[in-house]
Amino acid sequence: MMTTILFSLMLTVMPAETGTVQGIVVCEGTSEPVSGVQITVGGGIKTVTDGAGRFVVQNTPAGSTSVRAQREGYFGPAIDGDFPRSVTASVLVKASEPANLKFTLVPGGSVSGSVFDSNGKPMYDSVVGILRVVYTRGTRAVDVIEAKTSGKRGEYRLYPLPPGEYYIGVAPLADTQTTTLYPGTTNLNLASRIVVRASEETKGVDIHLRLGK
Q1: Quick one: 102 and 114 in the same domain?
Q2: What residues make up the domain containing 29?
Q3: Confidence band (pLDDT; 50, 70, 90) for 184?
Q4: For FRET with 153, which of 34, 48, 51, 186 sits at 20 to 30 Å CA-CA?
């Protein structure tokens, strides 16, 4: 009985060890800090980076855990050609010393322009998509990365986009027009590619729709 009581007392006075996870988030290729990044430790301890791109998460249970960094408009560094929406790292949390991390994020770029019908009039509510050519077992296919509808004046803006080379395509609502690739063709081999760079906006990508058959 006495042994049981003593053991119970030991459990109450010996809380689980905790430590601190801290670090910084910067833009890829620079030392520029990224503020407002959501940091998630383990199953749900969250904070955001400050103006200097730094974060501190205290009272983190000791042991191995994962830390995720994510912010709208940014991507993780490319992995096999793809840019993930977040970055995750594994870390060992100790009670005796803080665990330090450094994350790198890639700011997204954008593409904007207007959609016109075959008569040069603005086309609204047309679906504008940014497309990437992929190869699966040697077969070429088109993958839609992002899509939005054009506004009342035919305007559109696709953001955020990971860096890369893309095609822009438009699927109109009107049956009199046909799906068209920038600048105004239905043939992928004749379409112009758009180069999207980190944190840059490519403007004036206007698309003139072709008549339907």
Answers
A1: no
A2: 17-107
A3: very high
A4: 186
Residues with Cβ within 8 Å of residue 52, at least 6 apart in sequence:
24, 33, 35
Are residue 116 and residue 199 in the same domain, yes or no?
A: yes
Q: Which amino acid is at 199?
A: S
| Dihedral angle computed from the Cα positions of residues 80, 137, 146 and 121, in that order, rounded to the nearest 10 degrees | 140
Give yes or no for a cis peptide into 172 (omega within 30° of 0).
no
Per-residue CA distances from 197 to 44, 106, 160, 191 (Å)? 33, 10, 11, 19
Average pLDDT, whole number, for the chain?
90
Question: Do 88 and 124 share a domain, yes or no?
Answer: no
How far is 132 from 145, CA to CA, in rounded Å? 7
C-beta neighbour count of 132 within 10 angstroms: 17
Instruction: Based on the fold, state whether residues 65 and 137 are members of the same structural domain.
Output: no
In whole angstroms, give the CA distance from residue 73 to residue 124.
25
**Domain edge (last residue) among 107, 123, 156:** 107
Spatial distance between the Cα atoms of 198 and 164, rounded to a whole number of angstroms: 9
- At residue 192, the pLDDT reads 95
Which pTM value belongs to this model?
0.84
